[in-house]
Specification:
2 copies of one chain form a homodimer.
Chain A: H1 3-7, E1 11-13, H2 35-44, E2 46-50, E3 55-57, E4 65-71, E5 74-79, E6 85-91, E7 96-97, E8 111-114, E9 118-124, H3 125-134, H4 136-162, H5 165-180, E10 182-183, E11 188-189, H6 195-202, H7 206-218, E12 222-225, E13 228-231, H8 234-240
Antiparallel strand pairs in A: 1-2, 2-9, 3-8, 4-7, 4-9, 5-6, 5-8, 10-11, 12-13
The first copy, chain A, binds a DNA duplex through helix 7.
Chain lengths: ~240, ~240
Amino acid sequence: MTMVANKIKKSHINVNADCSTCVSLGCSVLRNCSPECLQEVSAAKRCFVYVKGQRILMEGIESDGVYFINTGKVKIFKSDKDDKQLILRFAKSGEILGFCSIDERKEQPVSAVALDDTVICYLDNKDFMRIIRDNPELALGLLKFYNEELIEVENKSLKLARMNVPGKVADALMTMYDAYGSNGKNCTLNLMLSRQDIANLAGTTKEQVSKALSEFKLKGIVKTKGKQIDILNLNSLRSIAEI
Amino acid sequence: MTMVANKIKKSHINVNADCSTCVSLGCSVLRNCSPECLQEVSAAKRCFVYVKGQRILMEGIESDGVYFINTGKVKIFKSDKDDKQLILRFAKSGEILGFCSIDERKEQPVSAVALDDTVICYLDNKDFMRIIRDNPELALGLLKFYNEELIEVENKSLKLARMNVPGKVADALMTMYDAYGSNGKNCTLNLMLSRQDIANLAGTTKEQVSKALSEFKLKGIVKTKGKQIDILNLNSLRSIAEI
DNA sequence: TGAATAAAATGACATTTGTCAACTTTGCTT
DNA sequence: AAGCAAAGTTGACAAATGTCATTTTATTCA
């Protein structure tokens, strides 16, 4: 990322005028929508590039619309009063951000920040609400999505409450693996996070993450080189992360 | 509760043949449904009494249908491999249990146990799925409900990750207060839980709960007599529970 | 009502986790 | 490529929390 790119703010771009041929349609809540519904979305949407590190949603602030990720990586988190973050999940291609109520204006419950340069399609709330009401299959898709999110966060709660630190760190690595996958025969995680962000995901401190990773390295479970993490023994990691 | 009552299992009763006049309709996802929709539900539902301590849902087991609470109190929780529970929320009059997917059979992500004798209306999945598909306003109601649940569990995650034990216990008391309210000028919580269950709610141990409650008593924030808890200073408690 | 039993409170102690400081490595800038 | 700043590692220590044993207080049932 160059200094120049860092300074670009909400540059409006035209990714794909027609949502029905979008690369991220297949993994979106919109995938079961009718051609007419997608037509409506295509007409109402606007696309933006968010550079690495740029904020998309701010916890506590109302959002005027919803965001669909076209390409990129986004972390979704909450902060306590000392600004310590807890990363709740990662969003990827096709996922929706910023939808938090169908019938009332509401403060965003979470923050969202781009982890890579990310292309996003934006829809005004009033357009999206109308489209939802006109398209029952979209409401069902959203229901399914949020139901699954709820189950995931419930699992996360149990882990935060009952796991020890090595377990939490192992689980954080599994989450990174599940979210964006790995590359090559070394199983290099596609997501590179700082130790602080791994701690924010695991619910511990950066020092504890360092110590847990060192322990995993000794056991031959992972290999690290800076922010790059290779998973050498996925089963072992999974069993440490088991609850 | 008598020994006799304890042995009653799924005794079928007839609470109210017509859902449109149900006492719990106003606080249910069904409240915005059309008369025709409620007619369908009325025809398909069956009602049961679950006695205090009786299990309604078992984590990991598929459920054949969904449950609406007519009257009573229910705890919803997950367990780790040592059977330590984390209470995720309480369900009350009008709330739905056991709905976890619209289009596929799925294991229950949570367990549910009656905390008082509880009257429940049951709907087979196939009936409920049909009713959802026929009534878009119901899908929207469910979407709103699960969206709010998600926000609550996200908040809970942050607290579990970042709060100290007194904060977690204060938050647990606030949750008990918010779920079922209080009675009288002494502000006696309507929900009476064992110290173990308060610990399961707070994400700590029963001994730590005892110690935190003793601390709160010294500060004049609460008064306890066995399982009965009076909140003497709600603002103080709320500020301890703040994150 | 009064044993008997279960639950809660308390203190001592062990364990885990967080914090801080010093040092090492990495990666960026010139 | 060297130097600098930021990030990561490590160990010592402090603080918080969990565990266990004991005492005290509720609750149950005859």
